[in-house]
């Protein structure tokens, strides 16, 4: 993807990921600035009217009853941004900042916010220059928009605060000057338009969806490897059995696991009449049902994300006929619920993976593998404590599955008396996705070691490729080694997305 055109229409999830993670540049569409200019004219007309208009000639939130005289309106916009840029905690990831900048730019380009063309152009220039405002972990309640995070962006547009200029922390004023960007002097309505959006939580939702597609594919792979390692059967993944319960995600995962096991000499070795095992444990047999339910959850959440990527979130909005109307579209509930929803299957997929890992390490249930896959059990502990790490992460994932969106803390002197906590839901989902990556990395390491120990029987071609890719970074079975770097190496391999 060479560039992403921002013209006020819907963006795709792929475009958001490309800008956020790959640094793909943006270009304003030919008609976007014309539409922005048209609606800006309506705002300027209202700015000169006697009747007060929220966000144009009044204060904000609980202070909306105060009419602001013309000569104080520039100060009103500056004060709004400075006071609302009140974040705290560690800086959030650059990819999150790029995503929220892109999504705010898209809404501004719809013309429904009433900003000037120069404001849209300056935000696009900041993003393309890779000058990223420092956005802090805490400050958004997921209602009235992601106020503190987006205020950090608006502050940088004014030439204030700190930014990462190509990764280097610098004063915004210096970074803008060196990148040929003129700081903005905000006009009526613009401060509010820059910050009253759900762009941070939406950006994190879109990035999470991209991650989960990769991780659910990986979970199918590690499950298939564990089935082989534990001398499980592939018959339960047959298509005619899956069609009896016609969930699309289940069918997809079952087909993947069956294909990954195709041609496995290990599976073939115990297909005959001498095999006395009637049914595998649930963590093997029911993997398509759990992974598939997670996939169907992702599919539902994608429909929500796609709707939001076509939305124009601001309050008040400038309608095509020139009316400026207050609304509640900034409330984050439509995004917060799906963010919380995704944390549940993340925890459950990880929980099932940990159970498969534990089974491979237990000599009473592993069907011939050495205890903890150790080289010299007793002298060596093998992967014993790697499973402890998995268990610790799974326990944390269960806590992270508790919803943020059922909480609400009233704010702004009770004007904003119900909030979504969607930003918090997004932050904990990102943590959960990192945890699932770690859990699957440990299963990948353990299953690969177990498959090596099944020699001379050979795994399926697909799972063998996964073992070979891991062996380029992590050696095979042997005496105990420092395991933490091996877990990290497996995590990196998973993040690169090059496994079958």
TrEMBL record:
<comment type="similarity">
    <text>Belongs to the PAL/histidase family.</text>
</comment>
<dbReference type="InterPro" id="IPR005921">
    <property type="entry name" value="HutH"/>
</dbReference>
<dbReference type="InterPro" id="IPR024083">
    <property type="entry name" value="Fumarase/histidase_N"/>
</dbReference>
<protein>
    <recommendedName>
        <fullName>Histidine ammonia-lyase</fullName>
        <ecNumber>4.3.1.3</ecNumber>
    </recommendedName>
</protein>
<dbReference type="Pfam" id="PF00221">
    <property type="entry name" value="Lyase_aromatic"/>
</dbReference>
<dbReference type="InterPro" id="IPR001106">
    <property type="entry name" value="Aromatic_Lyase"/>
</dbReference>
<comment type="pathway">
    <text>Amino-acid degradation; L-histidine degradation into L-glutamate; N-formimidoyl-L-glutamate from L-histidine: step 1/3.</text>
</comment>
<dbReference type="GO" id="GO:0004397">
    <property type="term" value="F:histidine ammonia-lyase activity"/>
</dbReference>
<dbReference type="InterPro" id="IPR008948">
    <property type="entry name" value="L-Aspartase-like"/>
</dbReference>
<dbReference type="InterPro" id="IPR022313">
    <property type="entry name" value="Phe/His_NH3-lyase_AS"/>
</dbReference>
<keyword id="KW-0456">Lyase</keyword>
<keyword id="KW-0369">Histidine metabolism</keyword>
């Amino acid at each position: 993807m060479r560039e992403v055109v921002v013209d006020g229409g819907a963006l795709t999830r792929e475009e958001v990921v490309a800008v956020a993670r790959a640094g793909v540049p943006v270009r304003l569409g030919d008609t976007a600035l014309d539409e922005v200019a048209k609606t800006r004219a309506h705002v300027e007309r209202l700015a000169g009217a006697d009747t007060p208009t929220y966000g144009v000639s009044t204060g904000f939130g609980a202070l909306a009853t105060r009419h602001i005289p013309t000569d104080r309106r520039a100060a009103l916009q500056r004060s709004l941004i400075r006071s609302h840029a009140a974040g705290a905690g560690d800086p959030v990831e650059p990819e999150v900042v790029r995503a929220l900048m892109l999504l705010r730019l898209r809404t501004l380009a719809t013309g429904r916010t009433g900003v000037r063309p120069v404001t849209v152009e300056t935000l696009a220039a900041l993003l393309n220059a890779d000058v990223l405002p420092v956005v802090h972990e805490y400050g958004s309640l997921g209602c009235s928009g992601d106020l503190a995070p987006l205020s950090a962006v608006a502050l940088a547009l004014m030439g204030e605060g700190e930014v990462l200029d190509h990764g280097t922390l610098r004063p915004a004023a210096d970074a803008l000057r060196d990148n040929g960007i003129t700081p903005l002097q905000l006009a009526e309505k613009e401060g509010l338009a820059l910050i009253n959006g759900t762009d941070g939580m939406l950006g994190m939702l879109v990035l999470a969806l991209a991650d989960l597609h990769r991780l659910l594919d990986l979970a199918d792979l590690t499950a298939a490897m564990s089935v082989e390692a534990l001398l499980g059967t592939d018959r339960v993944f047959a298509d005619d059995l899956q069609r009896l319960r016609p969930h699309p995600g289940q069918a997809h995962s079952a087909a993947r696991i069956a294909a990954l096991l195709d041609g496995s000499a290990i599976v073939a070795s115990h297909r005959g009449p001498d095999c006395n095992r009637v049914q595998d444990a649930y963590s093997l047999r029911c993997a398509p049902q759990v992974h598939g339910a997670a996939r169907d959850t992702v599919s539902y959440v994608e429909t929500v994300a796609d709707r939001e990527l076509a939305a124009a979130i601001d309050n008040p909005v400038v309608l095509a006929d020139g009316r400026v109307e207050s609304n509640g579209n900034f409330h984050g509930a439509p995004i917060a619920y799906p963010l919380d929803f995704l944390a549940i299957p993340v925890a459950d997929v990880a929980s099932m993976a940990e159970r498969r890992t534990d089974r491979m390490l237990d000599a009473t249930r592993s069907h011939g593998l050495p205890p903890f896959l150790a080289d010299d059990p007793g002298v060596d502990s093998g992967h014993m404590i790697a499973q402890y790490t998995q268990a610790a992460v799974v326990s944390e994932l269960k806590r992270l599955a508790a919803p943020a969106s059922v909480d609400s803390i009233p704010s702004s002197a009770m004007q904003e008396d119900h909030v979504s906590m969607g930003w918090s839901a997004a932050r904990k989902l990102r943590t959960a996705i990192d945890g699932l990556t770690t859990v699957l990395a440990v299963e990948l390491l353990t299953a690969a070691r177990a498959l090596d120990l099944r020699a001379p029987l050979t795994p399926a071609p697909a799972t063998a490729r996964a073992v070979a890719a891991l062996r380029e970074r992590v050696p095979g079975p042997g005496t105990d080694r420092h395991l933490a770097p091996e877990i990290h190496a497996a995590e990196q391999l998973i993040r690169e997305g090059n496994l079958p």
